[in-house]
Amino acid sequence: MTMTTSALLTRAHDGGVGDDPAAKPTRRRFSAEYKLAILDEYERLTDPGAKGALLRREGLYSSHIVEWRRARDVGALKELAPKARPAKRSAEQVELDRARRRIERLEDDLAKHKLALEIQGKAWDGRWRPPLWHEIVAGRSLTSTVTGAL
């Protein structure tokens, strides 16, 4: 069914757009007791078409029955129960974890830099020093240009 622009504007003006329950579907959750009751009823049915009628009446799929039966068979009444989610961390906990990760990363960088400086220090242990910039450019030492000596 298509709606005209004026009908859509009227519906939006009356607040009808936000009242649509299909706009945000929610996941169905089944309790362990419900699952076991449905499995028990499903397995007791013997008449042709009765199992399909049960699934239609309850709004279920055959895959639900397969999954629930498999979970029950492995001793999973506990698995049929809703799974507990970990509690959300507070803003302080998130910030603390972020700071800890940053500190760990900076400590690793510091260790790398210390190692590099140690390696360079062993290579430059007084036997030779790199030339200074003015020595490279002028080809002579700074003292000779200041004193006027050649």
Summary, kept brief:
This protein has 8 helices and no strands. The chain has helices at residues 5-13, 32-44, 50-58, 62-73, 77-80, 91-123, 133-138, 142-147.
Describe, in plain words, how this protein is organized in 3D:
With 150 residues, the chain is mainly α. Helices cover 61% and strands 0% of the residues. It contains eight helices and no strands. Helix 2 packs across helix 4. The longest helix has 33 residues, at 91-123. The protein is elongated, with a radius of gyration of 38 Å.
How many separate helices? 8
Q: How much of the polypeptide forms β-strand, as a percent range?
A: under 5%
Low-confidence stretches: none
Structural class: mainly alpha
Shape: elongated
Mean pLDDT: 76
Question: What portion of residues is helical?
Answer: 55-70%
Distance between the termini: 98 Å
Please report the total strand number as a whole number: 0
Calculate Rg over CA atoms: 38 Å
Instruction: Describe the largest sheet.
Output: none
Q: What pattern of helices and strands is seen along the backbone?
A: HHHHHHHH
